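Structure request: Cleavage and polyadenylation specificity factor subunit 2, Tetracentron sinense.
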Amino acid sequence: MGTSVQVTPLCGVYNENPLSYLLSIDGFNFLVDCGWNDHFDPTILQPLSRISSTIDAVLLSHPDTLHLGALPYAMKQLGLSAPVYSTEPVYRLGLLTMYDHYLSRKQVSDFDLFTLDDIDSAFQNVTRLTYSQNHHISGKGEGIVIAPHVAGHLLGGTVWKITKDGEDVIYAVDFNHRKERLLNGTVLESFVRPAVLITDAYNALNNQPSRRQRDQDFLDAILKTLRADGNVLLPVDTAGRVLELILILEQYWAQHHLTYPIFFLTYVASSTIDYVKSFLEWMSDSIAKSFEHTRDNAFLLRHVTLLINKNELEKVPDGPKIVLASMASLEVGFSHDIFVEWATDVKNLVLFTERGQFATLARMLQADPPPKAVKVTMRKRVPLVGEELRVYEEEQNRIKKEEALKASLSKEEFKASHGSDVDLGDPMVIDPSNTHASSDATGPHGSGYRDIFIDGFVPPSTSVAPMFPYYENSAEWDDFGEIINHEDYVIKEEDIDQASMHVGGDLEGKLDEGSANLILNSKPSKVVSNELTVQVKCTLVYMDFEGRSDGRSIKSILAHVAPLKLVLVHGSAEATEHLKQHCLKHVCPHVSAPQIGEAIDVTSDLCAYKVQLSEKLMSNVLFKKLGDHEVAWIDAEVGKTDSDMLSLLPISTPPPPHKSVLVGDLKLADFKQYLASKGVQVEFAGGALRCGEYVTLRKVGDASQKGGVTGTQQVVIDGPLSEEYYKIREYLYSQFYLL
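Returned structure:
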């Protein structure tokens, strides 16, 4: 049998809930993505809680809450302790995303599902990989190789390739084939015939306009509002798709010399942009080339102002402005408060660039037609005063007294347990019967020095006076002094990273006072709330800037990849069923769409065996250079070694003849340039390459494969036999390796 592969969805199938799946390969358990929604509802993590202790490794694909939001909670509360793998941007931006969510929640509630320390602790376990870097799993996962590849969608977004015994399992969700300002398109199409492909149906029913048309509509809507003296609110994520929006606005403002102010408002806005500036190698080719030629960083923003405090926004003079504020769901955060203030003005615009999560305010406002009024709850954290402060302080004093009492009881227990061990021969110990000797030292209340508490040291009950512990110095010495361990004084790189990433540690030293109070717990406070009915008079617009491939592109890509087995996850029931039926007809006969908790076996039908190449066989093999590799024909028969292992041995009869094979991957566009350099008149016509007057070249799929979309293609040369025909055929053969 082939490599054993089982897939069990834990969340995010037949709906748009967060993504989390258990992938078992030969008994090694991967948790691929560990998402949570903006409600932070623990009930949706129940399937994860049941298996979290069995997880051997975690793979993260994108730096947003839908893909990694539950990681701190799972590490703290659910017993998840496995190593985590991601790209560098997913690690950095995911950390900032969780900081922003925590601070936004803590500002308006007594949020206690996880803390800033829990976030730091969870992300300390992350091993960062670069694109196409093969990482070999050791121990229980010996023989498994994982590698991240470009997914598009978000900075650092990953298509995971997991290989065992030559069989590939591909996990590709939320990918984007389109090249954007910020990111290159996915490389998913470069994988051909993997054993298993796990992908999503989220966009299976959606089709998108051209990028140019979409961007123009986006800018037209914004400028129309600004020129009418209105404000524009864009509810955005912390460090994901907002980066593409910032680039669009920054470039357009620079080209057209516009002066309308643009603000990017999150608790970690400054840190986000500072880190993004260092991720140029993860961005599109155009950004990298621009930096090479001009040395200008695309995120050296001149028209976008970074804010981490809403008070700074309120100090801005009145006038039309654009604010990109977190959170995209409008449930909490700066975007929620700004929406309540701006929604009642008909001149303003709220522009959604992604579908709101289910049961959120953003999703409600995106309904068609939108509601005319919505109920919202305004929450605010205020310091305790008056009677409330007095009650709070009394409660804290009571807690301190209880802790002191417990400490005192522990002290008495210590005395009782050590009283029988007293050595009366010790000159420092007093005979309890000799009362007059101790009366002078203890004072009128009989307690004296013995009641003095020295932190970290409890004096014996029979001591005359406080005793201090004596520690023998066991350090080693040489001719130059005490021998020290240099490693005790080395500051580790990860410690520096964590120190620099501490919340509010913006590289410019900015920090919202409210955030500082939350972090330091400097003042006792409470959350006050009141419900409002907001009359929605502003304009509400939704434009798709999610950065995901649309339905038509998904179907085309899946047909090209042509996996042996396909697993569909994450998408509405309608979208999942639609894509499933399409793939059964046009992609592969084995398509699964499991329910939550349903374990499906997608083990390959192929049989794989490990064989040893005998020295006698290899001594007679003639290798030929093939680019960076060497290849050879082998004619052998299967036998067994003395250790009962399968081995390939030389055949006892003369080897049969074999046909010559041309090896290579010809691109017609490159061959066109080659022929032109040889003086051949060549042009594309009807998808074929016309060479000279009568010879035509075209690439066709292998007719023996279903749909001809497996990537195995033939080059067909048509034309009458002539000197020109043989000449072009010779040029064609020169582009391949003869084996």
